[in-house]
Design goal:
The protein is an alpha+beta fold. 28% of the residues lie in helices and 18% in strands.
Length: 362
Amino acid sequence: MGYSHRVTRADSPASLADSAAEQLPGQLPLPGLEPEPASGAAQRPLPGMEEVPRPPCAADPDPERDQVAVALRAADPDSSRLAAAIRGAFDLLLDGQHTGRYRWDQLHKTEKTHAGTLVEIGIQRLLGLADGSTLDYCVAGIEVDCKFSHRSGGWMIPPEAEGRLLLLVQGSDEEGTWSAGLVRAREENLTQAGNRDHKRTLNDVGRGAIEWLSRGAPLPENALLRMPERDIAAIFGYPHGQQRVNELFRRALGRRISRAVVATVAKQDDPMKRVRAGGGARDQLRGEGIVIFGDYAGHQALATALGLPCPGAGEFVSARLARRGEPGERNVAERYVRLDGSDWVLAEPAETTGPAPRLPRV
């Protein structure tokens, strides 16, 4: 088995020469302003045009916050574990395998209140954080409390957390983004008024004081939220789990499909059985020219060679393949893979294909 694809590289742009800016001559001081510097080479900024100040967190040192930030970045250099903790919390709340739910607005109000606890537990488990004696975590010997909000800026801070270091986490499945940062719950960072439980939120100063670990990063995708309503209706319109899973992979070509999505669609005790060869979607869709790549290294290499998203841990990517034509024919493409002794490319949407090749056994 082998695969081949061509990689092209754009030429580096030529660097542009910097042009020297002509300086203004010295200006006499206006009444009430200090005299010009002795050099007289630069003009003092006029009122209202002063240099924008640095972020409050840079001007307000917090050694403990900085220590915790270093420790968390070391534990999760690419922030993938934080993202996975949020994704996992959402999937647990939705419990799609038993409920068929896949949207935040399908949750009951009481269920949404548990999101913070699930995010907190997931972060501790995936980053290997120690328990705190009074707060959620002990990171680099420092107590840290975790606060989650589905809405940006919606963290509710109770009186007992005032003065403490907070790990603020926000995630939205609908927007497909998440953020996490550290801030000290100082009095000057909090709104004056609280709710009936005396919980307060961050004011403008507090939001500006957040030391972001990640901001607006992509959340691992829930593919059902990104598909057209007509496709969702077609998938869930089938009465049996295997039929629904087959339709999912027909309509979600080229998308990463997580195990949680498969479980939501199958609504059965062993949802992965509906994907695997030996009677699952891999066998049933092969006659339609569709292959389903998994998270095996060989499958990932094949998907990447075809220019498809690389399936991560616990993910699948389906694709419809056609045999690669001879030079001058329509389906000749730079990206192709060799399977079953033939070269295969991604099929055009309206192209008629025969049975797909068998993927290598892993």
